[in-house]
Design goal:
It contains 14 helices and 13 strands. Strand 3, helix 4 (about 90-100) and strand 4 (about 105-110) form a beta-alpha-beta unit. It is globular, with a radius of gyration of 21 Å. It has 2 domains: about 15-260, Type I PLP-dependent aspartate aminotransferase-like (Major domain) (Aspartate Aminotransferase, domain 2, 3-Layer(aba) Sandwich), CATH 3.40.640.10; about 265-380, Aspartate Aminotransferase, domain 1 (Alpha-Beta Complex), CATH 3.90.1150. The strands form 3 sheets. The protein has a 7-stranded mixed β-sheet with strand order 2-10-9-8-5-3-4, sandwiched between helices. The chain has about 375 residues and is α/β, with parallel strands linked by helices.
Length: about 375
């Protein structure tokens, strides 16, 4: 059926109707008083979402752009950094860091496994000369569905004293509790097309006072992603460059929806949907890629046996107009990923599991106990 596609991928995520309608409004001048009032509102609500009094800056970039800004504004060529790498995005931050001439030590884990927190502790404790200037972590590794233990790793960074912690929270911000001020996180990057429930195009960087101190001596080249002009402009409820005005309208509407739902309810909803979809997949006899204790609340990865993951994706799309994500790089064709992030509710999870049940049946998968997936999912919900 035309125009019936259901997005169950980790991004872009579904967009609420009122957010789409906000985007459809006529643009206003980005230097107008009217727009300044909107900027003041979204800035305050972004601080609410991040649970912080720190600056939360809005950039016209993707999540990768937000992470780049979070790296180049606070470090110098030759600085030693620890980068957690247990998937595509951890690998990306290591590559990016090397591009800018940083001295990278990677702490790796096998795909589908969480980062070893003790490896971070050992590296940080051994650094008695305080050469490690930053620890760069992907909180929710979207490529595998693994949630890394940010609180524990952060505690070791805090014990080190000198190092900054730079967090990719692209698929965790708005899906799980990240109390920025309570944890003392220095740089937190996220993107609009995930938990924010709006289309791609905006990136967000939350910056601590400690990070701003590091900014004063940072010398890596930057212009459009220089965060100081954004900070100065935000204090006046404006922007240094022309923003995507209608995406700011969308952000305003989405943050209003999130505030009405409440942080605790948002986090509880994502946790419940994660448990439900994992229960349904297990009941269908499909192996999960990430362990229960390190399960992302944004995306669940499945490693099917007897049947190609791409066949499952293709059949889900053709028969049910439900889009799920595939594996990336070496995991292509081996896993598929179901997103449950942002504007997703119980009905969506039930529909996805029911369609997966029908897909497995159509493909002749012998390991499935047909109907059990929906029953197990419904029991959790």
């Amino acid at each position: 059926m035309e125009d019936k596609q259901m997005l169950m991928i980790p991004g872009p995520t579904p967009v609420p109707e009122r957010v789409l309608l906000a985007m459809a409004k006529c643009p206003t001048g980005h230097r107008s008083g009217e727009f300044s009032k909107i900027m003041a509102e979204v800035t305050a609500k972004l601080q609410w979402l991040h649970q912080t009094k720190n600056d939360v800056l809005i950039l016209t970039v993707s999540g990768t752009g937000a992470m780049e800004a979070g790296i180049i504004n606070f470090l110098n060529k030759g600085d030693r950094v620890l980068v957690g790498n247990n998937g595509k995005f951890g690998e990306r931050w290591a590559q990016m860091s090397r591009v800018f001439g940083l001295n990278v030590t990677e702490i790796k884990a096998e795909s589908g496994k969480p980062l070893d927190t003790e490896a971070f502790r050992a590296e940080l404790e051994a650094d008695t000369q305080k050469h490690i200037k930053a620890v760069i972590i992907t909180h929710s590794e979207t490529s595998t569905g693994v949630l890394n233990d940010l609180p524990t790793i952060n505690s070791y960074v805090k014990a080190h004293g000198e190092s900054l912690i730079i967090v990719d929270a692209v698929t965790s911000l708005g899906a799980i509790n990240i109390p920025v001020d309570e944890w003392g996180l220095d740089i937190v990057a996220s993107g609009s097309q995930k938990g924010y429930m709006i289309p791609p195009g905006l990136g967000f960087v939350c910056v601590s006072p400690k990070a701003w101190e590091a900014y004063k001596t940072a010398t890596l080249p930057r212009f459009y992603l220089d965060l100081e002009p954004y900070r100065k402009s935000a204090s006046k409820d404006t922007t240094p460059f022309t923003p995507p005005v209608n995406l700011i309208f969308a952000l305003q509407a989405a943050l209003q929806m999130m505030e009405r739902e409440g942080l605790e309810n948002i986090f509880a909803r994502h946790q419940r949907l994660t448990q439900a979809i994992r229960a349904g997949i297990k009941a269908l006899g499909l192996p999960l890629f990430a362990p229960d204790h390190a399960a992302s609340t944004a995306v669940t990865s499945v490693i099917p046996t007897q049947i190609d993951a791409e066949e499952i994706r293709s059949t889900m799309k053709k028969r049910y107009d439900i889009a799920i994500a595939g594996g990336q790089d070496e995991l292509k064709g081996k896993i598929f990923r179901i997103g449950h992030l942002g504007f997703v509710c119980d009905r969506d999870i039930l529909a996805a599991i029911s369609a997966l049940d029908g897909t497995l049946h159509a493909l002749g998968y012998e390991g499935a106990d047909y109907g059990a997936g929906v029953a197990a999912t419904a029991k959790i919900l």
